[in-house]
Amino acid sequence: MRDLYEVLGVERSASSGELKKAYYKLAKQYHPDHNPNDKAAEDKFKEASTAYQVLSDEEQRARYDRFGFEGLRGGAGQGGGSGFSNVEDIFSAFGDLFGDFFGGRGGGGRRQARGADLRVDLTLAFAEAVWGVTKDVKVTRELACGTCTGTGAAPGSKPEVCETCKGKGQVVHAQGFFMVQTTCPQCRGAGKRIKDPCPDCRGRGTKPETSTLSVTVPAGVDDGQTLRLAGKGEAIPNGQTGHLYVVLHVQGDERFKREGADVLTEVPVSFVKATLGGDQEIYTLDDNCTGTATIKLDPGTQPGEVFVRRGQGIPRVGETGRGDHVVQFVVEIPTKLTARQEELMRELAKEMDEPVREKRGLFGRKKS
Known about the structure:
The protein is an alpha+beta fold. The chain folds into 3 domains: 1-112, Orthogonal Bundle (Helix Hairpins), CATH 1.10.287; 113-159 and 194-251, HSP40/DNAj peptide-binding domain (Sandwich), CATH 2.60.260; 257-333, Urease metallochaperone UreE, N-terminal domain (HSP40/DNAj peptide-binding domain), CATH 2.60.260. The protein is built from 10 helices and 15 strands. The longest helix has 17 residues, at 39-55. Residues 75-82 and 102-110 have low confidence and may be disordered.
């Protein structure tokens, strides 16, 4: 990627006003409405927008100045500094700015309205969050009416330009010494009027529909994270479709405790094995979290000691590599011993010159 200051054509000491002015110039030059079907111009537009998004944020700019693109990993731009995925994301992020620049997206008209965003909740098993999954969700939303194709007018007719606002959706009237602009009372901001409404949607242009959408969940997501399905929200006549936000709820797994991309597994081992060492079988995240592996337990392993399996943790979302799998040993002390086991333990205590509690008889008296 090119240096962000180079993209905008400014010095590294540029003020916020200079950044905005430089971005305005590039955005105007490469705006999609001014360069229809021009992939190169669209790429320039995305590049400039990504640069401005980072440098106009004081915290992200400071990280970039100090660490470069590595400082943006996981925090800047869309997906940690990787840039905008499409033009509509840019208009959503800088809607007010484009209104200031161009009077709307198109560079002179009213800003295009957008349908409502929707939210659904999706529950995932621990393994599904670790390795990713594709799931179906049902959502009821307003979609364009199939009978009138979203116009709101009956088949064979079409909406007419509102005579009151002349299609602008806004009217201007005097209020004392001031001129005030308000939503047109006749068309309610639509700029058009429907004299012969569609019988199916009654002139609304949309109808509620319940549909099943496929959601691809990437590997490594965590509880509480949100996925955005662009353009899968509600539709409105003559406007953009809203987005669908999928909030993830990840179920726990008693074998694994998660912290970011790392996982901790507590493994109980006997005090004998901890003392003498040996092979120990553990659970792993492999095979959809059903795998096992054998590790070597060193002689003299202490309670709480850890063994780290590098790169065997959870995949990092949007990045390469995995976190670590930390195995912590929990040394178990037996609460009951057989007579033979107790005899051996007392022999060991004697051998190590370790004073221990003396064995007592049935009535609590010390045995002779």
